[in-house]
Every structure is written in structure tokens, then in C-alpha cells.
Structure prediction request, 278 residues.
Amino acid sequence: MTDSVTLNDGTTIPQLGFGTYLVDPKDAVETVGTAIDVGYRHIDTAQGYRNEAEVGEAIANSGIARDEFYVTSKLTNSNHLRDDVLRSFDETLEKLRLDRLDLFLIHWPLPTRYDGDFVSTWKAMLELLEDGRLSSVGVSNFQPDHLEQIMDATGVAPVVNQIEVHPYFRNESARIASHEHAIAVEAWGPLGQGAVLNDETIAEIARDVDRAPSQVILRWHLQRGDIIFPKSMRRERMEENMGLFDFGLTEEQIARIDALDQGANGRQGPDPDTFDMV
Ligand code: NAD
Prediction:
């Protein structure tokens, strides 16, 4: 149903998943349950989304074997100290009702908090790999110099860097720095959190390939090799966002979408160098 990507630790991850940012806890059991019913087996959540327990409930309700799922969560900004990393990881597993998490990420580097010490946080994340309850460890929103710092200190590259990427903000510097170290890129906000959906160039290409604008944008990501997990609360959109593997974009169409990049002005989310919310 979806292609998979092999990560630098030898594990594999489905290239397409389901995102749960801003899926309100009161809706999350039903929404994630619908996504599972539609066929999603890769789910991206975070401590900060406050819906881990509901994601866990939806997975349990599905009756589908644990190993068919790929589940990611993220360390929230207030948990960067070592003891909080270890304690909150236990809570994440408990909420998700899992014995093992597939992937755990540092959500934001917070270079202006904790004395800029995300290296200690990374070392604590690596400790989590030791007892088999975590399969892979990665980061999110890390800029090139942040990646260098954690790798220089530990010699261990994250398996993924989950960063904002979409046609209005290709984020090439963080993307290229990730690829240089065999770190897979997960493109968050793949639809620009909705901003790219009404773009005229996307609409033209969508007419040419007889597909929805969302499918054109998501297909562009897949052909670039990035991992994506678009979010929708609606079943028909969840289905639409899965219909990506029976058509392709030409090099020329990809180049036209590439040309929509607005650099930093295209960002929809915060700048990781200054984001400091805890
Ligand atoms: P997105 O780019 O997936 O866009 C979601 C918006 O697009 C929603 O408003 C939805 O209604 C709309 N949409 C979805 N499918 C559609 C369709 N087929 N037709 C029309 N509209 C459609 O934005 P997102 O949810 O912010 O990003 C995806 C996931 O990435 C999140 O859910 C979360 O899991 C992750 N994320 C991570 C970070 C991070 O800091 N690591 C930040 C933001 C998001």
C-alpha cells in the first residue's frame, strides 16, 4: 500500500503515514481509528500533542497486530533534562499502550534554552535504545549546525530529521545537511499546513494529471524521497492522501513545483534557531 524507506540503523519506515498534530484528544480515538481503517499503519504523534493515550486506544481498538504499525512520538520541550527524558519516555509507552516504540524524536533543539545543551538530551535519547523498548532515535527541527553538534559529541547520527518542508519552503539547507549524514528527511506540514493547496501552479498540474491538488503536492514529496504524514480529520481526504502510488509527476512538473519555493518567507511554522517555547 505504501513504499518504505530504509533508515541508517537498518530499520524500515513506511514512507507515508498519518499526522496527528492538532487532533484534539476528544476526537483522536475516532480520527486515528478512521485513519487505521483507511489503511494507515504509520502514525506520528508527540508528547506535546496530548493525544498519545487516544492514539494508543485507537491502535488497541483496531485489533491489528502491533508489528504492523510504525509509531513515532516526540520528546516535548519541557522534558529535555536527562531524568525527564527517561521518565517521560516511560509515560509515552504507557499512554500508547506499547511495549516498544518505533521512533522517538527530540521535538525541537531549543538552542536558546537549557544553556543550548541539546547534546545532553541527545545522549539521554541514546540511552533509551539500550533496553529494547525503543527501536530508533531521531530529531526534529534540527538545523545543520545542530546536527553537527550531536554527531561530533556522540558519533551517532539520528535516523531521521523531521523538518518543515513543502513547495513554499523546501528547506534545502537542513535537507541537504541531513542527507550528507544519511539521515532521512521527514517533511512535516507537507501541504504547508493547507497553504499550498490553493496554489495556481499546483492546480494546473492537478488538472494535467487528473488528480487532486493535495495528491500532486504529496506525490512531489514522495518522488523527492521524503517521508510524509499528512493530517486530515476527514475520511475522504485520508483516502485521497493515500492514493499516491498509481501515478507520477514528470521531471518538468517537479521542476515547476520546486520553483514555488519562497525561502524562509515560505515557512508556516517557527524558526528552530529562535523557537523557545517550553
Ligand atoms: P499538513 O501539511 O498535513 O496540512 C494539514 C491541513 O491540510 C489540515 O488543515 C487539513 O484539513 C488539510 N488537508 C489535509 N488533506 C487534505 C486534502 N486531501 N484536501 C484538502 N485539505 C487537506 O499539516 P500538519 O498537520 O501540520 O503536518 C502533518 C504532520 O506533521 C502533523 O500532523 C504532525 O504529525 C507533524 N508535524 C510535526 C511538527 C514538528 O515540529 N515536528 C510540526 C508540525 C507538524
